[in-house]
Request: fold
Amino acid sequence: MRANDDSQGATVACFDLLVPGVGELVGGSLREERLELLEAAIERHGLDKADYAWYLDLRRYGGAPHGGFGLGFERLISWMSGIESVRECVAMPRWAGRMLL
Reply:
């Protein structure tokens, strides 16, 4: 996420759409496009810079500032239909022992 310029990076440019009775329905954020901050974060978290070379190259050679979001589809269906349990809205039901190999 893109760190805000204030608060020494304590906050980020993001949003959540909270719906009563459901919780977070949509969450999104801007992506960090500043190369020097990305490199500092990789070092701060003790990650191998080589593993992220492709991502750093996207920023180094012209990646555009952008953002993204995720919609909780099952939560949306739960909210729209009035079904209280999100588990009842999952398109592909899952339960213990059901995995087929």
In short: DSSP finds three helices and three strands in the chain.
